């Protein structure tokens, strides 16, 4: 017999703990927000759209007995919005026990963020790099161990960091750009943990992926392309093959709360082809563990965002 399935019921009591999660109004973020709140955490929902954030908050408040929730606007495609989110968070909260870098876009036509970054790299990696850096003092000042959990994808295995054409200005393929951004997520998560360890900091950084989960993430690309055929194909694939968003959120929840988790680990579904099932520790690609590439990406990310994550102990 294998290990028993891990579920929301296994999350420890989170009363007195504050969790911030990006993309909290739908999909994996919504499912995780509900789970965190059900265990007593105060959850700060970072969402791009205020109305959708409020609707998601109302739904959880109607489903749970007295959950502790707050919403703050956060557009990861705009670094000024990231800074505004952090300012508002710091004004309202003394502690931050868990940061879940969850929001993302997938396989969309080429677009640019407000700051001129390719959209998938800008939202999935650079926005979260800046957010983490700006919230790091709050994480480190919080008593006890804090955690930064960064959502990647199994498709990181197809990724390569194209430093000479990072924003796809010379050649753009929407799936290659997605894989690059998801590889960047893991390179960042692991490099952050190495730096936290070197600084003997009271925080750990963990990577995770949801497997194949039924969310709006897969439908956004075809919708933006105006392709009804691709949209219906994705909907059919999700209906036939995908696990629910609630199940897809379990690796992130496990990474954020399981007592046995250590920094630098990678959590994903342990079932069929790592696409579904109960969360387990997994191996990520050899490329994701390349410290030289991670250090170079860190330096580039710092230059692009203007956010310095200075922990000492590792040369830039």
Describe the structure.
There is one protein chain. The chain is α/β, with parallel strands linked by helices and 316 residues long. The protein has 10 helices and 8 strands. The chain has one domain: 3-Layer(aba) Sandwich (Rossmann fold), CATH 3.40.50. Helices cover 44% and strands 13% of the residues. The chain is globular, with a radius of gyration of 18 Å.
Q: What is the topology?
A:
Blueprint: E1 18-22, H1 27-38, E2 42-47, H2 50-63, E3 68-73, H3 79-92, E4 98-101, H4 119-141, E5 146-151, H5 174-198, E6 203-208, H6 217-225, H7 228-241, H8 245-248, H9 250-257, E7 266-269, E8 279-281, H10 291-305
Entry keywords:
316 residues; alpha/beta; Rossmann fold; eight-stranded mixed sheet; 13% strand
Major beta sheet, strand line-up: 3-2-1-4-5-6-7-8
Summarize the helix and strand pattern as letters. Answer: EHEHEHEHEHEHHHHEEH
CATH class equals Alpha Beta
Low-confidence runs? 231-240
Major pleated sheet: 8 strands, mixed
Estimate the global geometry from the Cα principal axes.
globular
Rg (CA only): 18 Å
Short summary of the structure?
The protein has ten helices and eight strands. The chain is α/β, with parallel strands linked by helices and 316 residues long. It is globular and about 50 Å long.
